[in-house]
Structure formats: C-alpha cells, structure tokens
Amino acid sequence: MVNSPVPTLALVESPVQLLNVLEWAHAHAHTDIAHTDAGAAAGAPAPLLSAVPRQPGSLPGRARRPQDGPPRPDAGWLRVVVLPPTDPMSRGQLRRVAGIARDEGHAVHWQEARGGSGSPFGALAALAPAVRRAGRIVVGDPFSRLVQLLLVPARTAELTVVDDGTATMEFIAQLGRGERLRRWHRTGGGTLTRARELAYAPVSGTARRRLTPRGGRVTEVFTSMPITPLPGMRLRVNDFAWTRSRFGPPRLTKGTDLVGTSLVETGVVDPARYLDAVRALTLEHGVTRYFAHRRESPEKLRALSEATGLEIVRPDLPLELIARRGPVGRTIVSFPSTVVHTLPYALTGTGVTVAVCDIDPAWLTTAASPRARSFLAGVTETARDVRRLPAQAAPAAG
C-alpha cells in the first residue's frame, strides 16, 4: 500500500521562518519522512485549510526549479499559515516568500492576527479546527505568545520547530532546564508586565508541555544552529539544500558587505556605540553596502548612511536568498546573529568569506538583560566556517 502524506500545518510569523519551512519540506520530501503509515489507511487527507488565491502577476525573487519542472505532485500535504506582524518590511518580505512557497506547490493561508484587522483570539477561532486535525504541526517561534495560544487545541503527536534565528539555541536550553519560555533579551519588566505573564502562565505552560518530547510525543528540531538535542528529541540539520538548488551561485563583487542587526531596536546595544562600530568596520574592511535588518528603524539607517557613506540596502527577501542570488561581496561581515550560522551553509562552495565581529560588553545598554553578554558571545563562539573579528575594529591609518 502506498503511504499517504501526513497532513501538516505550519505556523510562521516571519520571512526567515517561512524560508526554513520550505527547507524542512524539501529535506523531508527527499528522505521520505513526510510519508508515514499514519495516513495510509485513511487515504489522502482532506485539506486542512483553503489556500489563499494567487495574486495577479509574479513576485520578485521567484524560485528557479531545476529544469523548470512542475511542483511536486504531493506538495499538498503541507498547509502554511502566515501570521503576519504589523511592520511593513516584514509583511512585504513575507508576501514574496509566500509567492515562492506557492510556486513550490504549497498552499498558503494568510491569517491576520494583530492590529486593527485581526486579533489573537480571532485567529484561534479561525484556525483551531485545522490545528486539531493536523497530523503534524511545524512552528517557527516557540516563544511567540500567538503560537503558544494556537498550540492549546493541538492533538498531534508530532511537533517540529524550525529556526527563528539564534533563539533556537535558547529554546533548547530553557526547555531542557524546565523553565518557562522567555526571549533572551527580555528583562523583568514592571508590575503590569509581571501580572500579564502570570495570567498567561497556563497557556505558556501548555505550550511548553506540547513541545517537550515525552510519552510517545515526538519533537523534531530542524536547525542550522549548533545545539544538542534533548532526550527523545529528533535533530535534523538545515544545510539550506533547497536554497542552493534553486538559486545561484552568485556573482561576486570586489567590495565587502555588512549585515545590520536590530540589537539597537531591542534595547540591547547603545545606538552611539553601534554607529561607531559600523564606521570602524567600514574603514577597516572597505565595506560598501549595508544590508539592513527588517526591524531597523529608518532614523537609525539614515544616521548610518550620513556617518559612513554606505549604500543602505533593504532586502525584499531573507538574506540567505539575497546572498545566494547575488551579486554579493567576497566578504560578508556580520555582528553576532543568525546569518553567521546560516550563510556558511547557503554560500558553501561560492568563495564567499563570512566574518563575525564580536559585541564588546561596553556596547550593551543598562537595560540589556543579564543573559545578553553570554548569549551573544555564544552565538559567535559556536559559528562554523567563519572568520572572527575583534569587537572594536580600529579605523585604518592614514
């Protein structure tokens, strides 16, 4: 008997999460893990959600299929639910990656859950039946309160976590210690914040139990980060095979590119110290372009451009796709962030050098969480195939 695909529901909130769901689907399709005996007796599963109709016209950055072949005939086993944030940059990137996902044959459902046009409880009401019916659920951000809320009605025995950046490292550490899930850069907050967290604790606790492998329940982590899986957890390495098969190799430029970070926006790094660091790196390494993080503020980017003369680029796709598509500098410099772990995979064999500049503890604000220093150091120290740069790069002489 031919096995049927397990109906899978993916909940994503950022462009990077959606990219990593595409990588996960590609990896599973090529190892037959997506097909199990669980669905064989029941036949082909009914759609979990209706797909959002394709928008007229093509989206920038469409994926190139090998030999321009058709989508996989079994691609319908995966339904992707996009829970978009409110900021325009993230929404724009999400729409573009969603277009690529549709080109791969996956159904994409756009569900507003924030702001004036949507609410978390409205999203729960709309999605709860699909969450209950899903044979497998894939999530991109286990720290998200919205995702935690949506996991409450889940009945699946298999959960997969794909990367939402370096936060995966902290997720595994906190889950292993039995702690409540809390973002590494968050501080204690005031009385009102603590009261809200106390009221939300039952939801957070349920989500943590859902994500903990025990009693036959499988938790899979699909990641580019250097982590040690917990007992009973299945670990699969995301080596960006899908990205490498669809894009590039890129044309290389003579200059150096610098990858921006939102550490200023999250209150971790002092804005003046950050500007000084960017200026020093620009002078020392001949940086010509600055790839902005989607959360960086226009005011900050304008100040950086005026102080350094850098060309500010606001990518319309995740940086892994932008770099693989090219053109890209022969050297890419980054502060401690996700890309120092993902770009070496995405750019393997291209001749591009990825370099990481440490964060000096003196750059941290007084509001930075106690975990900030050790977490950022860990991101740098565990990066593979990268060149290490000193925390304070001095301006070139003369």
TrEMBL record:
The organism's place on the tree of life at top rank: Bacteria
Protein name in the entry: Uncharacterized protein
Organism: Streptomyces lavendulae subsp. lavendulae
